[in-house]
């Protein structure tokens, strides 16, 4: 039976040599042409700024910033940064006018992420104004500190506390400064832990920390939400079908800030990480606690399943070097090689580029060139007629998470695998 979620991977596996013709000489013109295509489609009107970094124009601004940081694109740096500033300025004006404080505190779908990217772009341009969006970002910590600041679930990546901590981590990485005070970080981490403890006790779970989103106990990073955010958390002008990040992201952020935790709190986090590790089913993880994976049509996305959960175990391995965590990452990579040529498009959320980022992650963890080769093959597939004809169309083709901006980030990172990382989501900090 044909798999409706992915193309068959007909590539031969690594035999000791990388693909020829995928170096800078060939890749730079492809990246530049892709950016030109994106800039022809990105909206330039204030009324079209919804979607945040996920699928709004702000994600294009981040992509331009990311490309401009790479020396191979130095001749385009000024024009890319100036364009990025125009886009992010418009996005900042949009979220400044947002009356919902919860919306402003959201990372990938709201203000926090936009303020963070604005600060990065301004700093790269040498503008002293970069402190203004930083101040706006810092002031949002009080919004997400209360345990139940969102009725639907307060701890995930797109709109919750994990996202706010993630954006602070990105700022620390890119700007070299800790944006939040230790007390502020500790307050948010303790809220995540207390929220997880309360839910686990309420539902009588056999493990210490558990989180839900809209009443569902998700184990992977994200879940496709077929609800309209405007009726729930975020006021938008159009319905949003989006991947919303869950349990593994909370733990990644807690591990990233584990120095802020007590010994007992650390123990709770590690026990929960090990519980998630034991939920594996044939190299994959179910999207929801207790679900049985149907192998013929299983979800193998960054937003669902192994390609996203791998980042949790990568973080765990980087901290304590226990081989079982690296083994889970490697097993995830084997599944992605088999089923990661996704039909949902070129993006990083549930597309081919998102799958390929797992190989770049594994290369950084292991140094094994096999993973660069696999990433090269997935990059090659993006430009085949089979992919163009058989992949689903994307509503916002310019977007960072579903469209070409995320693909561009991947193609650039493939040229610098030693520094590569999933956009706005580093486990190496």
From TrEMBL:
The keyword Nucleotide-binding does not apply. The keyword Transmembrane helix does not apply. One of its GO terms (cellular component) is plasma membrane. Coiled coil: none annotated. GO terms for molecular function: metal ion binding. Keywords: Metal-binding, Zinc. One of its GO terms (biological process) is peptide modification. Zn(2+) binds at residues 303, 349-350. Pfam families: LANC_like. PANTHER family: LANC-LIKE PROTEIN, LANC-LIKE PROTEIN 3. Belongs to the LanC-like protein family. This is LanC like 3. It comes from Astatotilapia calliptera. The lineage of its organism: Eukaryota, Metazoa, Chordata, Craniata, Vertebrata.
């Amino acid at each position: 039976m044909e798999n409706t979620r992915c193309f068959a991977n007909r590539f031969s596996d690594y035999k000791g040599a990388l693909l020829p013709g995928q170096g800078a000489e060939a890749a730079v013109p492809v990246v530049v042409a892709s950016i030109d295509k994106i800039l022809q489609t990105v909206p330039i009107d204030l009324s079209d700024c919804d979607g945040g970094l996920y699928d709004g124009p702000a994600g294009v601004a981040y992509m331009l910033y990311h490309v401009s940081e790479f020396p191979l694109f130095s001749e385009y740096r000024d024009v890319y940064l100036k364009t990025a500033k125009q886009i992010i300025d418009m996005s900042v004006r949009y979220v400044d006018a947002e009356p919902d404080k919860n919306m402003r505190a959201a990372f990938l779908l709201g203000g926090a992420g936009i303020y963070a990217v604005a600060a990065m772009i301004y700093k790269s341009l040498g503008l002293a104004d970069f402190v203004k969006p930083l101040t706006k970002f810092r002031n949002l910590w009080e919004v997400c500190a209360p345990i139940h600041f969102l009725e639907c679930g307060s701890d995930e990546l797109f709109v919750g506390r994990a996202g706010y901590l993630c954006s602070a981590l990105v700022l620390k990485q890119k700007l070299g400064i800790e944006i939040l005070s230790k007390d502020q970080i500790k307050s948010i981490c303790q809220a995540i832990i207390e929220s997880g403890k309360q839910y686990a006790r309420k539902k009588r779970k056999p493990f210490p920390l558990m989180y839900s989103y809209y009443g569902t106990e998700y184990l992977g990073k994200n879940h496709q939400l077929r609800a309209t955010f405007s009726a729930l958390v975020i006021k938008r002008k159009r319905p949003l079908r989006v991947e919303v990040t869950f349990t593994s992201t909370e733990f990644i952020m807690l591990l990233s800030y584990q120095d802020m935790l007590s010994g007992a709190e650390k123990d709770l986090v590690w026990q929960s990480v090990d519980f998630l590790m034991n939920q594996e089913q044939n190299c994959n993880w179910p999207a929801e606690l207790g679900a049985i994976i149907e192998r013929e049509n299983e979800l193998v996305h960054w937003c669902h399943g192994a390609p996203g959960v791998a980042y949790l175990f990568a973080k765990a391995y980087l901290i304590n070097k226990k081989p079982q965590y690296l083994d889970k990452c490697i097993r995830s990579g084997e599944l992605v090689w088999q089923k990661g040529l996704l039909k949902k498009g070129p993006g990083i959320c549930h597309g081919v580029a998102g799958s390929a980022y797992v190989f770049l992650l594994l290369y950084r963890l292991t140094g094994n060139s096999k993973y660069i080769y696999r990433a090269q093959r997935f990059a090659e597939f993006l430009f085949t007629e089979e992919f163009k004809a058989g992949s689903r169309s994307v509503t916002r083709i310019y977007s960072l998470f579903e469209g070409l901006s995320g693909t561009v980030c991947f193609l650039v990172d493939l040229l610098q695998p030693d520094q590569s990382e999933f956009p706005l989501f580093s486990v190496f900090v």
